[in-house]
Write a structure and sequence with these properties.
The chain is α/β, with parallel strands linked by helices. Helices cover 29% and strands 18% of the residues. The chain has two domains: 69 residues, DNA polymerase, domain 1 (Orthogonal Bundle); 266 residues, Alpha-Beta Barrel (TIM Barrel), CATH 3.20.20.70. A hairpin with a 5-residue loop joins strand 1 and strand 2. The N terminus and C terminus are likely disordered. It binds S-adenosyl-L-homocysteine. The site of S-adenosyl-L-homocysteine (SAH) has 17 residues, from strand 8 and strand 10.
Length: 357
């Protein structure tokens, strides 16, 4: 299904969705308007899903006109949607400067999860990740992050609602913390999008100085892309490890007071055949994680053309998860979803995304 792109003006104006309610109230106060007008705009944008400022009928005409003259309310357009045989939908979204990004909507029995992107491309060059192979173009704005969620809500099955949000799409969220933080504020604000913070997960490859500031924004979940039990292997898979090695990463998490039993860290461990899937790895992991409330999410590698890695056999995956379990680690196996439309973890790499199409 393709839809035409209508966001054609080249001029970029400030977007109201770049501002959480506090910031909106400040903007409004500067113009002499009362704070509750900002709350009304937030309710239209995020609760009523109305983007047309002229349709915000409880605002006085002069305020509407002033907003129309100065601000945009839409940041992204849907360029194309693809649907997997398993119901997963991938949205290809276009920004005003022509950048393309992807968001993935994953329906499950009792929840509907959206995976959002935070950057166009990614600067981290993890060598098993298709996004990493793209290179980096730019950070997304708050409005562009929030718009992925609003578009996804419009693509829900009738009667369905968006229950969970994971920042696991293209990009490294902690290298775009100001925009990501403001998006989290909007999406978890009870008077805006109103998602429960515990249903929001931000995944990082381990940008250590930004972990505390992120967890200060709201009581969300943190996911950490670990993928290895030695620096030797992690240096290759996740080059950021050379700056923030495993011991420092785990020490930071161990000392972080906002991580506790009710809010454990989700460690992601992408299993690659012959690289990080040995019994020795599985036996090392419990010791490394000691003292950190955690769950380990094992993800068999989703293969793609940009990386030389393959998933291990089902037996090896079972052997690995069983060994973790025996070591006292809470472990889940992530089922791959949407592989047939390249929507699975690490496969988001629309060629146009880096603006080099
Ligand atoms: N930059 C952040 C957010 C990306 S999240 C981070 O690194 O956490 C995407 C998750 O999918 C990460 O855990 C990433 O390591 C994992 N991943 C990347 N490529 C993959 C692949 N080909 N197969 C399975 N998982 C992959």
């Amino acid at each position: 299904m393709a839809e035409s792109v209508s966001l054609t003006h080249a001029t970029r104006r400030p977007n109201l969705k770049d501002h959480g309610r506090d910031a909106l109230r400040t903007l409004f106060a500067e113009r002499g308007w009362p704070a509750y007008r900002a709350d009304q705009v937030a309710a239209w944008l995020y609760q009523q899903d109305v983007e047309d400022l002229d349709a915000m009928t409880n605002l006085p005409q002069p305020i509407r006109e002033a907003l129309v003259a100065e601000f945009d309310t839409r940041a992204l357009e849907v360029v194309e949607t693809q649907r997997s045989v398993d119901g997963t939908q991938k949205l290809l979204l276009g920004a005003r400067d022509g950048a393309r990004i992807e968001a993935v909507l994953i329906p499950e029995e009792r929840r509907n999860t959206l995976c959002v992107s935070t950057q166009v491309g990614c600067p981290l060059t993890c060598d098993f990740c298709a996004t990493g192979a793209l290179g980096f173009t730019r950070n997304l704005s708050t409005a562009e992050i929030v718009d992925q969620v609003l578009h996804a809500r419009r693509h829900m099955e009738p009667g369905g609602s968006l229950t969970n949000l994971v920042f696991m799409g293209m990009g490294e969220p902690l290298l775009n913390l100001p925009a990501v933080s403001e998006a989290i504020r909007i999406l978890t604000d009870p008077k805006a999008f109103a998602l429960a913070p515990r249903r929001v997960t931000v995944s990082t490859a381990g940008v250590l100085p930004q972990i505390g500031p992120l967890l200060e924004v709201a009581p969300i979940h943190l996911a950490v892309s670990l993928h290895a039990t030695t620096d030797e292997v992690r240096d290759v898979l996740v080059p950021l490890n050379k700056r923030f090695p495993i011991a420092e990463l785990l020490a930071t998490l161990r000392e972080e007071p906002r991580i506790h039993r009710r809010r454990p860290v989700f460690f992601e461990y992408t299993l690659m055949k012959g690289v990080n899937d040995s019994v020795a790895d599985a036996k090392r992991l419990p010791g490394l994680l000691r003292g950190i409330p955690s769950k380990v999410n094992v993800i068999p590698m989703n293969p793609h053309d940009d990386a030389p890695y393959e998933p291990p056999s089902a037996e090896v995956v079972d052997r690995f998860t069983a060994a973790l379990h025996e070591g006292g680690v809470r472990v889940t196996l992530r089922r791959d979803r949407g592989r047939d439309i390249d929507a699975a973890c690490g496969q988001l790499a629309n060629r146009q995304a880096a603006g080099n199409a």
